[in-house]
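Recall the central idea of this unit: under ordinary conditions, the amino acid sequence of a chain determines the structure it adopts. In this exercise we apply that idea directly, starting from the sequence alone.
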Amino acid sequence: YRGDSSPEGRNEGWSSFQDNFDKRSPHYEDNGYETQPSHHRDNDRSVVMRGVQEDRKGRHSPYPFRGSGRRVRWRREGNIHVTVSGNGKPVMREMKNTQDGAQGSWFKVTIPHGIKYDKIWLMNSIQSLCSVCFTPVDFHYVKNGARFFVQEASTASALMDVSYKIYDEENQKIPIFVNPSAVPYSVRNKLEPEEMEKLKLAFNKRFDVSQQSLDLRKLRFDPNLVSQDIEIILNRRNCMAAALQIIKKNFPKLLSLNLSCNKLYQLDGLSDIVHMVPTIKILNLSKNELNSLWELNKMKGLKLEELWLRGNPLCDSFPDQSTYVSAIIECFPKLLRLDGQELPSPVVIDSDTPCAIKPSKENYEGSDTLKNMILQFLKQYYLIYDSGNRYDLLSTYHHKACFSLTIPFHSEDPALSSLCAYFKDSRNMKTVKDPNLRIQQLKHTNGDIVRALCVLPKTQHDLNSFMVDMWFRTSTMVCFSVSGVFKEVEGGSQDCVRAFTRTFITTPASSSSLCIVNDELFVMEASPKTTQSAFSIPVPTPSTSSVATFSKEQQQMVQAFSTQSGMNCQWSQKCLQDNGWNYTRAGQVFCMLKTEGKIPEEAFKEIP
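Accordingly, the structure predicted from this sequence is:
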């Protein structure tokens, strides 16, 4: 990684990136009329908006209505009469057709701070509580809020009844504001039937039936459209909506869509592709003007296998290539290729690698291959977990994995107060009575899980303390538990030793790898006896051929380590073995244990 290589620097940089997405708001209409910002950037009306930063973790107070009297607001367009009662709930008293009688009455629905929420989750949550089925028109994010339009007073009234009844992940109620509106922009500027037919003909010429691919690069300059004075600018929602309608109707099995070189700077309109064209596997968005990862989040539901983003400003917003790749994979977990490069498969372990963990106890049934796979998995998992950059664990988890943490915390027991760092996320069903809070504390998706792990204290696990039990196995599932001890390496509880039990439910990702689908972590205080013996080097079993059984290179490492550390060859060999023959790591562990006085004197005595 470039820049600060410390764990703190890496985590702070990522956190800053995650929490401060450069959310750029394109020109959206107010009450249905498109407002043009004063700052234009090119002749297709693409506009550079100043980035609006939103703290995703902040809690927001809803906007209260003040006063107890009744207020009446008149809108002269279409004779819409809205009365706001004393409790702040609008009541429709009279409803007539708007200026476009054929369209009926339109209402603008606004969710303050809605930019924090995924579109699919938000719409499903609203629809599940709404007494009327509705179709959101022109859903988009403007400034920090989410906005869409609906028709008819009955739908508007039903949506108002949903306000403050939905809880987000922070257990905050979500307000929904409904106001009368003029006809939405995309409806008012809907392409005429003749234009739609000409656009369809242009698409047919760009469609490759053998590959089920559609090439829409530089669509605005398509000679067949320009010659007929048809201007298609995909940043405009009415144009993108028309394009998606044609694709849905005429190319229902489309696999590849090329939208490169269209000056796209927002993907609000394209977000509907998730349900309109779910078959898409290859999407080319290269050489556009996308500035923020937030735009890609709007299409999270697509099961893309290949994505092209090269040539967009957002590609330069990451500190390094691995962070860029990890962020994109979080949006599209099934991605196999990015910008033409094959992505590494989500593999954390390799059963061909020699197993370095020797669990002190083991209850195991199964083949040696599976045994080695589990042990190697645990070794590599905890090496990454303790490295300070837990974001590298992202590919270890299934994109819909689940994680929970529990501690035996009792606020009245001062002896357990050192576990406070884990209390906020502890999900003990006996003590957490609020069902919404229990749901909040259950982490879903690999991204949410890794972010939760990064918040937990930095640790060092004692691999020699591990006890492993593989307790269930099928052809599609491997379930195992690991217990042991670790110590915190920074903060107010530095050097405190904890005991833990962790249960993994995994699925085979390949013949030599595992993918976590469920992870349960239980953390508790370690007993005094366990604390005393933790992180000490076990006495090696005497052997007359302790070095001879290893390769020449390993024998040389043992001799060098013995010379530098002052320990005899037998203890030097054990230290190197326990650390996977990683000379640097073995040296670090040796220095730490020597400082703590945990290496016995016999380690420094010559073996007769």
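Confidence is low (pLDDT under 50) at residues 1-103, 346-366, 539-548.
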